[in-house]
């Protein structure tokens, strides 16, 4: 597919910049697309001496396949060795390869973020790898599997999509147990079954599988899709059929200056240059779940000080087992190294406290529901009047590009954009992956968008409003899509020595990775013995 690449500002951050992108991989294609939209004049050459991507600009970027993990030599081996085949296959009970080049796509976005950071800082170059990007995409699953308190019990397979009486495959989403109860009770399902299904449905995000009671699938198959849509609307359930692969033709991210009647001092490049590219910058992050917290985590790895805005009592996800010390292992994978302040955004006095924090911040990043920030008086223009150099970033679901959009969550976005058909080979039914592919890729894209906005701020001296989305992440992932994968595509084989794919062993025990010497340059243990994916960039 072709991504629509309109530049969303008349003076994008890389205007008048000439960049050469070499490589014949998804990483190179994604880099070319993102850098073009960032304003650069991009020359593309499908050669990189075996590397996935190489960028020549004022700063140089090299993306290798394996980096510190030389076993990774292509997309399939990245998925096999780094555990993606294992996580993606959990819902089916055995390892499965992703039908799209997810690891290389993630590496392209991540490498682009490093390149922009190098340009902002004045570094000469940066290196990263597809293997390091791949490990970052499974960091939550790795942390949970390797936590000291992790349970050794096997995860049962299962999960959506559901099928209606007229054969339509569909996904549903509910964030409130009352909505879940009302939807299934209206279809005649017993209360004990409804209750038994809620926990695996909610836990499909952290576990990548959802062994739902068979009675739920049976109840869905008793009603036409039109009837289910009507019933879902009455119950408050978000519902979306699995679409064919599609693109709405929008940008990967949006940047716009925010004009306020205040004169701000422009900071020189010399003032910005520190040990890491974003050292000395402060990010306020008001994020939940994966997308915004991961974006802020990457900014922290680039040197920024990140302060989380949490509700009174703290983020409830801190207590999700398994634990590493005082915090959830999964939570640490996204939030390690951040500080936090508790603020009730519904309380006027606490909103004033937040505005006080904004006065000295560089970035305010959130993934609140559309319109929430503006309704609370915390929108881009509101906060720019407090800090006329603020970069305001919204990591959203749909970027207001779909009139009929369902709830903006990972699996609904996969269903709406047709990824279910592209992720699985033609001899399997279409189905979104229960690995949080778009939340993670959306987080990577959120980090890229933030650094692009910081560059734009240096050009203009003004506050910048920026937005990325799960929809844009899905479109980036489809850049090289060409119909459904062939039957058996990237399907591992089970032999006497375990699962293999094209001669490479498939990692199906994430807990073993921290002690495996092959991963020593990619994964470490923190002070609480929790597995952590190490910084994926090297600057020079």
Description:
There is one protein chain. 35% of the residues lie in helices and 17% in strands. With 540 residues, it is of the alpha/beta class. Helix 13 links the parallel strand 10 and strand 11 (305-310). The model is unreliable at 1-7 and 263-273 (pLDDT under 50).
Instruction: Tell me the overall shape.
Output: globular
Mean pLDDT: 94
Radius of gyration: 22 Å
Proportion of strand residues: 15-25%
Spatial strand order of the main sheet: 9-17-16-15-10-11-14
- Percentage of helical residues? 25-40%
Number of strands: 23
Which quaternary structure do these chains form?
A: single chain
How would you concisely characterize the structure shown here?
35% of the residues lie in helices and 17% in strands.
What's the SSE blueprint?
Elements: E1 18-22, H1 26-37, E2 41-45, E3 53-56, E4 60-64, H2 75-81, H3 84-89, H4 102-121, E5 125-129, H5 130-137, H6 139-146, E6 162-163, E7 169-173, H7 177-186, H8 191-202, H9 204-207, H10 214-220, H11 225-235, E8 238-241, E9 254-258, H12 269-272, E10 282-286, H13 291-301, E11 305-310, E12 323-324, E13 327-328, H14 329-335, E14 339-342, H15 348-358, E15 363-366, H16 372-375, H17 380-384, E16 391-396, H18 410-416, H19 419-423, H20 437-460, E17 463-469, H21 470-477, E18 493-495, E19 498-501, E20 504-505, E21 523-525, E22 531-533, E23 538-539
Parallel strand pairs: 1-2, 4-5, 10-11, 10-15, 11-14, 15-16, 16-17
Antiparallel strand pairs: 1-3, 3-4, 5-23, 6-7, 7-8, 9-17, 12-13, 18-19, 19-20, 21-22
Helix pairs in contact: 1-4, 4-5, 4-20, 6-14, 7-8, 7-11, 13-20, 20-21
């Amino acid at each position: 597919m072709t991504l629509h690449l309109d530049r969303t500002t008349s003076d994008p951050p890389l205007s008048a910049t000439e960049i050469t992108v070499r490589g014949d991989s998804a990483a190179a294609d994604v880099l070319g697309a993102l850098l073009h939209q960032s304003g650069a004049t991009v020359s593309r050459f499908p050669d990189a001496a075996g590397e996935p991507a190489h960028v020549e600009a004022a700063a140089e970027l090299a993306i290798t396949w394996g980096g510190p993990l030389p076993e990774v030599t292509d997309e399939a081996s990245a998925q096999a060795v780094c555990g993606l085949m294992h996580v993606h296959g959990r819902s089916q009970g055995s390892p499965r390869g992703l039908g799209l080049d997810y690891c290389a796509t993630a590496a392209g976005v991540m490498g682009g973020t490093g390149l922009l950071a190098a340009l902002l800082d004045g570094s000469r170059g940066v290196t990263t790898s597809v293997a390091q990007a791949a490990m970052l995409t499974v960091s939550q699953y790795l942390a949970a599997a390797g936590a000291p308190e992790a349970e050794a019990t096997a995860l049962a397979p299962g999960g959506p999509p559901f099928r209606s009486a007229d054969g339509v495959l569909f996904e549903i989403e509910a964030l409130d147990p009352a909505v879940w109860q009302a939807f299934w009770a209206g279809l005649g399902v017993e209360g004990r079954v409804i209750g038994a299904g809620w926990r695996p449905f909610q836990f499909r995000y952290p576990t990548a599988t959802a062994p739902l009671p068979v009675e739920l699938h049976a109840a869905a198959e008793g009603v036409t899709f039109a009837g289910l849509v009507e019933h879902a609307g009455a119950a408050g359930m978000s519902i979306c059929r699995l679409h064919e692969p599609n693109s709405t033709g929008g940008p990967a991210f949006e940047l716009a200056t925010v004009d306020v009647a205040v004169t701000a001092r422009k900071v020189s490049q010399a003032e910005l240059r520190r040990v890491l590219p974003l050292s000395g910058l402060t990010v306020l992050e008001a994020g939940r779940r994966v997308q915004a917290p991961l974006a802020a985590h990457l900014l922290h790895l680039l040197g920024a000080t990140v302060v989380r805005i949490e509700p009174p009592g703290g983020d409830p996800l801190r207590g999700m087992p398994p634990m590493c010390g005082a915090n959830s292992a999964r939570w640490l994978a996204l939030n390690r190294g951040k500080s936090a302040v508790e603020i009730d955004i519904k309380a006027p006095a606490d909103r004033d406290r937040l505005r006080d924090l904004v006065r000295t911040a560089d970035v305010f990043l959130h993934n609140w529901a559309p319109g929430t920030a503006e309704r609370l008086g915390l929108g881009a223009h509101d906060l720019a009047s407090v800090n006329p150099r603020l970069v305001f970033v919204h990591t959203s679901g749909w970027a207001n590009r779909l009139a009929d959009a369902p709830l903006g969550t990972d699996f609904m976005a996969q269903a709406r954009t047709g990824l279910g058909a592209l992720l699985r080979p033609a001899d399997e039914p279409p189905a979104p992956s229960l690995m949080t592919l778009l939340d993670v890729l959306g987080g990577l894209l959120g980090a890229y968008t933030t650094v692009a906005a910081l560059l734009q701020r240096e050009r203009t001296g003004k506050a910048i409003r920026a937005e990325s989305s799960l929809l844009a992440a899905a479109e980036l992932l489809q850049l090289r899509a060409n119909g459904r994968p062939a039957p058996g595509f990237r399907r591992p084989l089970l032999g006497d020595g375990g699962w293999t794919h094209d001669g490479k062993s498939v990692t199906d025990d994430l807990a073993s990775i921290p002690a495996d010497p092959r991963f020593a340059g990619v994964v470490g243990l923190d002070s609480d013995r929790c597995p952590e994916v190490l910084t994926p960039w090297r600057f020079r």
